[in-house]
Amino acid sequence: MSDVILFINRSDSKCGACGGDADPREKAHVQPMGYAQRPGCGAVWSHVGSQYRGAGIEETSQEMRPDLIWTDQVSIGRKP
User: What's the 3-state SS for the chain?
Assistant: First the structure.
């Protein structure tokens, strides 16, 4: 899988490949997260974005994950 987005929002983070809850500190979607505690899909993130459109989200997301390329896409399952 290539060009997978890690969505960092105000109160959660989501994997762009499967839509599952994600730990934004991981390099790939591995750890079980969220209420259902489903394991991650294994996707390796290449981009960071947000479904939240508030002020400062791009800067905050990039500070949190400077290793990932920013994208303004907001839909799960779409590639940059």
Answer: CCCCEEEECCCCEEECCCCCECCCCCCECCCCECCCCECCCCCECCEEECCCCCCCHHHHHHHHCCCCEECCCCCCCCCC
| Phi-psi category of residue 18: left, alpha or beta, with phi > 0 → left and psi -120 to 50 → alpha | alpha
Q: Which of 12, 44, 41 is nearest to 26 (CA)?
A: 44
pTM of the model: 0.85
50-66: pLDDT as tens digits: 988 888 889 999 999 99
Q: How far apart are CA 55 and CA 22, in angstroms?
A: 22
**CB contact at 8 A, 16 and 4:** yes
